[in-house]
Amino acid sequence: MKTLIRKSLILLSVLMISVGCKKDYLSFDYTDGNIRADDVWNSDRNSRGFLNTTYAGLINAYNVDNDGALLASASDEAVNSNANSSINIINNGTWGPLRTIDDQYGAMYTAIRRTNLFLENSTTSAITPATDIPRLRGEAYFLRAMYHFELMKRYGAIILSTRSYTTTDNLDVPRNTVEEVVAQIVADCDEAFKVLPASHAEWGAADKGRATGTAALALKSRVLLYAASPLYNATGNIAKWNAAATAAKQLIDLNKHSLLTLAQLANLWDFSVAASNYSPELIFATSVTAGNTIERNNAPISYEGKGRTNPTEELVNAFEMRVSGKPINDVTSGYSAANPYSTTGATARDPRLALFVIYNGQNFKSKAVETFVSGKDNVPTNVDNTKTGYYLRKFLSESAAWATGTTAVNRNRPWILFRYAETLLNYAEALNEVNGPTADVYTYVNQVRQRAGMPGLPAGLSQDEMRARIQNERRVELCFEGHRFFDVRRWKKGAEFFNKPVSGIQIVKTGTNFTYNKFTVENRIFTDKNYLYPFPQIEMNKLKNLAQNPGY
Questions:
Q1: What's the whole-number mean pLDDT along residues 50-69?
Q2: Alpha-carbon span 431 to 445, nearest angstrom
Q3: Which residues contact 132 (CB under 8 A, 6 or more apart)?
Q4: Cα separation of 387 and 503, whole Å?
Q5: 3-state SS of the chain: helix, strand, coil percent to 5?
Q6: How many CB atoms within 10 Å of residue 205?
Q7: What is the pLDDT confidence band of residue 32, given thresholds at 50, 70 and 90?
């Protein structure tokens, strides 16, 4: 290999990630300057260290705009409190090749090149014992699949990269079809599954966080679900849905993962809580970082938070009733407009509402939040004030501390890429498309509902009714985790959900009583071109054969 690798960059990349690698993998004897590839592949430690750098491409999505924005604020889940956030170009119709956000094009191909270099050199490397090589290659196969999927879910058809390229190679080649991309991702997942430990439970303590067989199956399940969905399956080919169902069921049948209790779910993203570390529900996540940035970016303003992610009234209304299990717009549901956030009795809402959203009167860090007019968490002159009457609760730890005059307390967090609840919903969705609402469809979607303390879905649903209930279950269970942004796109329901205003709630307190008035927060624009990301113009300028996505 002619290309020289900067050892300093390798060291930096290794130190930037924490994937449970053994300590000696991080120990390099080095001097300043360039080193040749042989210096990497002729060393066991350096070869393993190079693989560790490939994990650095995993996307931590807590901060899309470098100011705390989540992709949720580019969907009907939330509004960003910062009107000037670049996340809003997705909402206001100005998204295009010259105005991009969440542009992962170059970063993903850089990460893919690293995986390819490892795959090309690992079999003749100095890795000792040599019996470790297949497993290490399995990690690289999984990561290559993951990075290709990150490109596909954004841009659709992309250029497959299954070998490393040099400056003398012709890189101006046409995009592969989505079908070819999906086939390659599935093939890499299958290769990874053959040789990786089944789940994180099989990894030693020092290697927790590395790729696993169930992570490969979770990725395979997700990519096949995307491929079967209307955005990529215009003819409704049932075989594609069946493939998605089969992949999800394979993971389920391994019996390596299970759902946490609802109380445990609250701590799933906080690795400072021992019980949450690589819990049975967690399948795969990014490296763990310590900090309190998530709280500072999203906590209510009276807690010195920026309140960046403001849940919409549309999302809040998606949470059903605890006793009847019915949507709140059903007149027989038991919903009380005078007590919309009830947690007890016949008017109680889905318990996940209190777990994921901060609403008026709810305790946070032992104090009641006040989002009513003139309340301490509703001060319009504060630029970080909630725009919707709600603040984000999911991901936040009440044990973190960041306020002025207090001692900072950090929490250890990853961005969770795959968890078991999604796999159950993947299976239920795909199986419903194949066979309609069979007993298995009910079984697996109800597992997610019942974990949350919700009753099972009513018997006798039609296929269309079941589809709508599963889609709403994903909306509620997976909110703020980046799924809604892509789910609505793959379902081709952008015009229904995203091309319309989003709402908030104005709460007026009179004595001990409250009145609730819905109001429009933002108008949103979605057109057909927005189903896919635009390729950045800088890439279009380099590659004549990289045809821009339609409409841009």
A1: 97
A2: 11
A3: none
A4: 9
A5: 45, 10, 45
A6: 7
A7: low
Where b means 16+ CB within 10 Å and e means fewer, 445-466 reads bbbbbebbebeebeeebeeeeb
CA dist 297 to 83, 219, 345, 393, 505, Å? 14, 29, 34, 12, 21
In the block, tokens 């709403």 appear at 472
- Length of the chain equals 552
Q: CB neighbours (10 Å) of residue 272?
A: 17
Q: What is the pTM of this model?
A: 0.93
Q: Omega before 550 cis (within 30°)?
A: no
Q: Which two tokens stand for residue 145?
A: 């699949």
Q: Which residues of 1-11 are buried (b: 16+ CB within 10 A; e: fewer)?
A: eeeebebeebe
Cβ burial 172-195 (10 Å sphere, 16+ → b, else e): eeebbebeebbebbbebbebbbeb
Query: For 70-132, where are the alpha helices, taking DSSP H only?
Result: 105-121
Sign of CA dihedral 339, 344, 350, 355: positive
Handedness of CA 60, 194, 112, 157 (dihedral sign): negative
Round to whole Å and give the CA distance between 452 and 461: 21
How many whole angstroms separate alpha carbon 206 and alpha carbon 22?
Answer: 6
pLDDT tens for residues 442-477? 999 999 999 999 999 999 999 999 999 999 999 999
With 0-12 / 13-18 / 19 or more C-beta atoms within 10 angstroms meaning exposed / middle / buried, residue 394 is buried
